[in-house]
């Protein structure tokens, strides 16, 4: 419902499954309900009809097994990097022990920021802040990681760097990932499958399996198959998805 009381149907007849440790990207026109899907999976909102389930259990509230990375890092500016990473543990348990701090330190090493553990967020670049947000999302070892356009505010070069960094992290600590993006190139580079949505109300226009070998590198971007798949997804977005 909008602020003026109008009902808006964001999604309609959506149905799909995601396998354990699969990386799925979702693309589609602006306003088609991509972020709504993430909020439904996260348990932040409830569907007006139908059901969302994780590991066979209906999602009725936020789950510990689900981690979220938002468009902006949303770091607490008065805390240093290590304290930002450990914040979910402090919020859930009321304290952070040595084991929790050690785990946070391991995660900072994983994202390449161990030497910045005592820095404040405003001392970091945008890409570095988003790495902190990723480390924070992994602290409680979620089985499912939801990422809502996490690199959209970054410059093109940093965005590419973060994409490859995310793939490295995912290969070292496998998770089921649902990744929202407006970038078709990013979706094809990162994902095992790309779900293409129609304009609002969002329906599935196509589900494209990405048969590119892993690990994916800069050379992947010049692979003829990569360009062929990207062109096919783009065609779906700008023809079938917008015309639906």
Task: Please tell me about this protein's structure.
The protein has 244 residues and is an alpha/beta fold. It has two domains: 1-65 and 142-244, P-loop containing nucleotide triphosphate hydrolases (Rossmann fold); 76-140, no CATH class. It is built from seven helices and eight strands; from the N terminus they run E-H-E-E-E-H-H-H-E-H-E-H-E-E-H. It has helices at residues 34-42, 81-93, 98-110, 126-138, 156-172, 184-190, 224-243, and strands at 23-27, 53-54, 57-58, 66-69, 144-148, 176-180, 193-197, 204-209. Strands 4-5-6-1-7-8 form a six-stranded mixed β-sheet, sandwiched between helices. A two-stranded antiparallel ribbon has the order 2-3. A hairpin with a 2-residue loop joins strand 2 and strand 3 (57-58). Helix 2 (81-93) runs parallel beside helix 4 (126-138) and helix 3 crosses helix 4. The longest helix is centred in the last third of the chain and has 20 residues, at 224-243. The model has no long low-confidence stretch (mean pLDDT 91).
């Amino acid at each position: 419902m909008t602020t003026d009381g109008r009902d808006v149907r964001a999604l309609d007849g959506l149905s799909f499954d995601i396998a354990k440790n699969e990386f799925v990207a979702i693309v589609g026109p602006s306003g088609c309900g991509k972020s709504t899907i993430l909020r439904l999976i996260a348990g932040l909102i409830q569907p007006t009809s139908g059901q969302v389930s994780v590991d066979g259990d209906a999602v009725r509230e936020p789950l510990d097994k689900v981690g979220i990375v938002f468009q902006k890092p949303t770091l607490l500016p008065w805390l240093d990097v290590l304290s930002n990473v450990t914040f979910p543990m402090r919020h859930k348990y009321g304290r952070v022990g040595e084991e929790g701090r050690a785990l946070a330190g391991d995660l900072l090493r994983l994202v390449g920021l161990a030497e910045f553990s005592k820095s404040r967020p405003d001392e970091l670049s945008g890409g570095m802040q988003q790495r902190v947000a990723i480390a924070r999302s992994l602290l409680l070892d979620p089985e499912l990681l939801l990422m809502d356009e996490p690199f959209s505010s970054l410059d093109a070069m940093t965005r590419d760097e973060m994409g490859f960094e995310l793939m490295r992290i995912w290969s070292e600590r496998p998770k089921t990932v649902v990744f929202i993006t407006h970038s078709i190139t990013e979706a094809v580079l990162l994902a095992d499958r790309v779900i293409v949505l129609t304009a609002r109300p969002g329906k599935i226009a196509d589900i494209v399996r990405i048969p590119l070998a892993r690990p994916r590198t800069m050379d992947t971007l010049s692979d003829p198959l990569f360009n062929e798949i990207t062109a096919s997804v783009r065609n779906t977005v700008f023809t079938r998805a917008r015309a639906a």
